[in-house]
Amino acid sequence: MAEFFAELKRRQIFRVAAAYAVVAWFLLQLVNNLTEALRLPDWAGALVVILIVVGFPIVLLFCWIQHLPADGATRQTKTNKLDWLLVGGLAAFVLLIDYQ
Fold first, then answer.
1. Cα 2 to Cα 7, 8, 14, 48, 87, distances in angstroms
2. With the C-alpha atoms ordered 16, 21, 24, 25, is the resulting torsion angle positive or negative?
């Protein structure tokens, strides 16, 4: 199981999932605030949630495919500033959800 998580980390799946969660939260907040002002139908919010849920595995699949090594070689990645920024964004997301 540790090898699987190491492979996910190497292919940057966690980074993509965190970025997707932050963008999805932003879109949900935007739709929630603009639904009444734009007089959108009641099902508009549900449609956005469904699209976000359906899009999540598709985005992860594309990320996995993109990071396939061409020659079968493995490479090492290091933690950089973007990783820490995404971790901070995810932590802020969790704290805001907890606060609400």
1. 9, 10, 14, 35, 21
2. negative
pLDDT at 73 over 60: no
Segment 38-62 shows an average pLDDT of 91
Asked if 18 and 90 count as a contact pair (C-beta separation under 8 A), the reply is yes
Q: Which is nearest to 27 in space by CA: 49, 5, 58? A: 49
User: Residue 50: its pLDDT value, please?
Assistant: 94
Quick one: tokens of 59? 């985005």
Q: How far is it, in rounded angstroms, from Cα 5 to Cα 3?
A: 5
Residue whose structure tokens are 């899009």 = 55
33 token code pair? 């605030």
Percent of the chain residues topping a pLDDT of 70? 88
Question: What is d(CA 77, CA 63) in angstroms, rounded to the nearest whole number?
Answer: 15
